[in-house]
Amino acid sequence: MVLAIETHELTKRYGTQIAVNALSLDVKQGEIFGFLGPNGAGKTTTLLMLLGLSEPTSGTARVCGHDPAREPLQVKRLVGYLPESVGFYEDMTAEQNLAYVARLNGIEKSSLPRKIEGLLDQVGLLAEARKRVGAYSRGMRQRLGIAEVLLKDPKVVFLDEPTLGLDPDGTQKMLDFIVGLSRDKGITVFFSSHLLDQVQRISDRVGIMLKGSLVAVGPIQELAKQKLGVDQERFTLEEIYMRYFREGVPAQS
Q1: pTM for this structure?
Q2: What is the distance between the alpha carbons of residues 194 and 48, in angstroms, rounded to a whole number?
Q3: Cα 39 to the chain's mean position, in Å?
């Protein structure tokens, strides 16, 4: 088993407040991992440490075999990140935005036009490639964000609320695309969402954070049997999540 993400006792403190408490977690290469928890649970802080944007107080993390705290540039070359609110230059076209990001990442110029065309086609934006991004809908921006993430041919992608604000058709297209990243390209997808029905539809495993601690991790079916005592035909992820949320008791591995 090849691991894309590993953490051991990863901890982040802000003064006396513990944002992430001794997080130990493994995510396998090519899997879709849903990272769940209420606001303030430590999800964003964990994500920032994995991306090399925040140093842990103690503990270790490895992403694609690299330590984000000591080798942040190596990690950034191998991962992509789609934040909840994607930022683009409004007065530039989709093509121009991607070309600018590509130059910042040192992507070879000679192959860039074909690469950009292929990515825009892949996310369904080829017909709008020369439209200014300021005129894009939220769904189009999200798809352009995915194209930007894929510019570097990442091994791992981090997605923060990737379907928030999308209509049902846009949501389904985004979920299908995320599944394709894993199943067709072997890319590890680590994503955070409050929309638990969507997480249940596409995740191989999930982790639930409460008050800075990982209280449950595993395939959804196993968590259902463990916490609810039911099989996979008689539960929703929301029921599992709310049971952990109400009890706040770590799962026994």
Answers
A1: 0.89
A2: 18
A3: 16
Residue-wise pLDDT tens digits, 119-163: 999 888 999 999 999 999 888 998 999 999 999 899 999 999 888
Question: Which domains are seen in the chain, by residue range?
Answer: 3-87+139-247 (3.40.50.300)
CB 19 within 8 A of CB 36: no
CA 161 → CA 81, 133, 136, 152, 232, distances in Å? 11, 20, 19, 21, 25
Give kind and range of the element (H or E) at residue 9: strand 3-14
CB-based burial label for 252 (10 Å; 0-12, 13-18, 19+): exposed
Dist CA 53 CA 130 (whole Å): 33
Q: From edge to edge, which strands make up the β-sheet containing 188-192?
A: 79-82, 156-160, 188-192, 32-36, 205-210, 213-218
* Burial class, 111, CB count within 10 angstroms (exposed 0-12 / middle 13-18 / buried 19+): exposed
